[in-house]
Design goal:
There is one protein chain. By secondary structure, the protein is of the alpha/beta class. It has a single domain, classed as TIM Barrel (Alpha-Beta Barrel), CATH 3.20.20.140. 40% of the residues lie in helices and 12% in strands. The chain is built from 14 helices and eleven strands. The chain has helices at 31-41, 52-55, 73-79, 98-116, 127-135, 155-164, 198-210, 221-230, 254-263, 273-276, 285-293, 309-323, 350-359, 364-390, and strands at 11-12, 19-20, 45-49, 83-88, 121-123, 139-146, 166-170, 213-215, 235-240, 267-269, 328-330. Strands 3, 4, 5, 6, 7, 8, 9, 10 and 11 form a nine-stranded parallel beta sheet that branches. Strands 1-2 form a two-stranded antiparallel sheet. Helix 5 links the parallel strand 5 and strand 6. Helix 6 packs parallel to helix 7. The longest helix has 27 residues, at 364-390. The protein is globular. The two termini are 32 Å apart. The model is unreliable at 1-27 (pLDDT under 50).
Length: 391
């Protein structure tokens, strides 16, 4: 039976069944201090950052507070963040060997950043590493592979990425791989495989054996259901939103979220305005294509639209009501999206989200799970399944 979420009644959302609050300046709310104290108590984990792309810029310093982008060490400290997953990404399609080379290069960049900033950052690949970093006053950094095209159809490469520290892999990105169908991002795709191919099922089995979390963000609906059937370990959506609130192809239906929860996994809510806001306008296709090709480091597509913070909270509210506080978390997609809600301009503003969830009546104990406790549990469960399968 689904555990009931601890909350109090609030105002009904316009155009939907989930609760909302009127826009408010969270800095004037007494909840904000409470939220900051809660961030000190919890281990706040963001399961998807694209900040790795900024590391490729020779003059960009992770230790400096920047006026652009979403993430750096000073702003993570201000936001009370305890751990982040840095995504290794190269836009598809890639020439043979180019995807693997790009992934190796980015992993080296992350390793250099960790070495240069070892007073603030600690490499992690297991839940215990994250907890140790918290005790030491450091921010845990984990690595993830975004896009199964980066394995170039090789299980040996899956094993290599795991050996280098990859904690999860997103099975697809914006295009189909040779073994799994993608949902697409800003344009729908015709099915290629109708889900997972037989080799795709081999990939899932190998990830399970290695203890690498299987990420279904970006996959097609058919691929999603094939993964749920194939995986013996908990399944995660590291940066996805709720289709009930915003009917975007990248978002999850209530039935999908329930299936993730039944597997023991988590739904990590994405902060991209395009996935949150049903009224978000389509950006110029050419500008969007250029921005994606730049890894999110080029000029952002111009969009004259403001998405309120309350819509982000609506997606958390939806997921929490559908699957409960044991199966929801944060997967911002910071530095990989060109528009975020007002009040969530960078990672330093995360306490605004926590304050808004407190305002909606969620308990501190529930939010400790949402802020990061659920991710630690799933990491441990996936690694335990890997140990079992290797026995």
């Amino acid at each position: 039976m689904q555990k009931k979420v601890t909350r109090v009644p609030s105002i009904a959302m316009r155009g939907g069944p989930y609760a909302t609050i009127h826009p408010m300046d969270m800095h004037d709310s007494g909840r904000l201090d409470e939220a900051r104290r809660l961030h000190e108590r919890a281990i706040v984990i963001d399961t998807h950052l694209d900040t790795t792309q900024r590391l490729k810029q020779p003059d960009w310093d992770f230790a400096t507070r920047h006026d652009d982008g979403h993430v750096d060490i000073p702003r993570m400290r201000e936001g009370g963040i305890g751990a982040v997953f840095l995504a290794v990404f190269q836009a598809a399609p890639v020439e043979p060997g180019a995807g693997i080379a790009a992934a190796r290069e980015q992993i080296k960049l992350i390793q250099v950043v960790l070495q240069r900033n070892n007073r603030d950052l600690a490499f992690a690949r297991a839940a215990a590493d994250v907890e140790r970093a918290k005790r030491d006053g450091r921010i845990a950094v984990l690595m993830a592979i975004e896009g199964g095209h980066l394995i170039e159809d090789s299980l040996e490469v899956v094993r290599e990425y795991h050996s280098l520290g990859a904690a999860y892999m997103t099975l697809t990105h914006s295009v189909h791989t040779n073994w799994a169908d993608s949902a697409g991002v800003h344009a729908p795709l015709e099915p290629l495989h109708g889900g997972l191919s037989p080799f795709g099922r081999d990939v899932i089995r190998e990830m399970n054996r290695l203890g690498v979390m299987v990420d279904v963000s970006h996959v097609s609906d058919d691929t999603f259901w094939d993964v749920i059937e194939a995986s013996t370990a908990p399944v995660v959506a590291t940066h996805s939103c709720c289709r009930t609130v915003c009917a975007h192809r990248r978002n999850l239906t209530d039935e999908m979220m329930k299936a993730i929860a039944a597997s023991g996994g988590t739904v990590q809510i994405n902060f991209a305005a395009a996935f949150l806001d049903p009224d978000f306008p389509e950006p110029d296709p050419d500008a969007l294509k250029e921005w994606i090709a730049s890894g999110g480091c080029g000029p952002k597509p111009a969009v004259d639209h403001v998405t309120p913070l309350s819509l982000l909270v609506d997606h958390f509210d939806c997921a929490l009501q559908v699957v409960g506080p044991d199966h929801v978390g944060i997967g911002s997609d910071f530095d990989g999206v060109f528009a975020v809600p007002e009040g969530m301009e960078d990672c330093s503003r995360l306490p605004n989200l926590t304050a808004a969830l407190l305002e909606r009546g969620y308990s501190e104990d529930d939010l400790v799970k949402v802020l990061g406790g659920n991710v630690l549990r799933v990491m441990a469960a996936c690694q335990a399944e890997g140990t079992r399968l290797q026995a």
